[in-house]
């Protein structure tokens, strides 16, 4: 599996599309933080990090689409499968690479946020308990990784970069409406309250409830089940 991970990371380092994605990500976060309010009562640098994960799931979906789908579109997946590496190692090697890439995006944008907000706003806590802040940041990272798992599953099943990016973006921005629609169609009201975006909003507002933690655990379980399903499909699918 380590060979697959090293290979995928090597391809990303030499992928101009991924480099451009990183630059766009830095420009967006740098610009947003630079243009944000800088008055004395403005949110501090660390508090500003409470929302630094904005748009990261979309950026991560683009990278994940490249990691998973490029080998299908370039007709090189058959060579990888026939190289003697097990399909489990291929599947989870790519999955781990996509997660590492997402964490890299989070890390880079967190650093940009700290530097810019720290310069203009200082590093005071602004009344926010630091322990609570770091817990919120950790929870946001979990939310982003769950979204990325969904993107990975979509990419693995559809094997199309465009479809993965489009569906992942729709899922990120409209998952509340999607769950509301499913609740309306199935008449199962509890589905209406499973929106991951609602949990993310509560995290940003430091308003996490016990119900939010239950939803987060449920979404994590769903993501893992879908990942196992996608793995089984990959192991049984014909590679052309």
TrEMBL record:
Q: Which UniProt keywords apply?
A: Membrane, Transmembrane, Transmembrane helix
Membrane among the record's keywords? Answer: yes
- This protein is called what? ABC transporter permease subunit
- Alphabetical list of PANTHER family matching this protein: INTEGRAL MEMBRANE PROTEIN-RELATED (PTHR37305), MEMBRANE PROTEIN (PTHR37305:SF1)
Q: Is Transmembrane there in the keyword field?
A: yes
Transmembrane intervals:
12-32, 52-74, 95-121, 133-158, 165-185, 213-232
């Amino acid at each position: 599996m380590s060979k697959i991970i090293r290979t995928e990371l090597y391809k990303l380092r030499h992928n101009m599309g991924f480099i451009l994605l990183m630059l766009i990500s830095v420009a967006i976060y740098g610009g947003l933080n630079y243009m944000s309010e800088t008055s004395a009562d403005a949110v501090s640098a660390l508090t500003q990090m409470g929302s630094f994960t904005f748009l990261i799931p979309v950026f991560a979906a683009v990278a994940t689409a490249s990691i998973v789908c490029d080998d299908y579109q370039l007709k090189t997946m058959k060579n990888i499968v026939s190289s003697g590496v097990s399909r489990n190692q291929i599947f989870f090697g790519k999955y781990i690479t996509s997660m590492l890439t997402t964490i890299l995006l989070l890390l880079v944008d967190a650093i940009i946020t700290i530097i810019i907000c720290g310069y203009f706003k200082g590093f005071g806590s602004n009344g926010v308990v630091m322990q609570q802040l770091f817990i919120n940041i950790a929870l946001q990272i979990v939310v982003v990784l769950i979204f990325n798992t969904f993107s990975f599953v979509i990419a693995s099943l559809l094997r199309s970069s465009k479809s993965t990016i489009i569906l992942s973006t729709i899922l990120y921005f409209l998952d509340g409406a999607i769950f509301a629609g499913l609740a309306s169609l199935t008449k199962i009201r509890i589905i209406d309250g499973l929106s991951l975006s609602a949990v993310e909003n509560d995290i940003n507002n430091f308003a996490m409830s016990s119900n939010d933690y239950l939803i987060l655990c449920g979404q994590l379980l769903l993501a893992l089940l879908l990942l196992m399903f996608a793995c089984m499909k990959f192991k049984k699918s014909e590679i052309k």
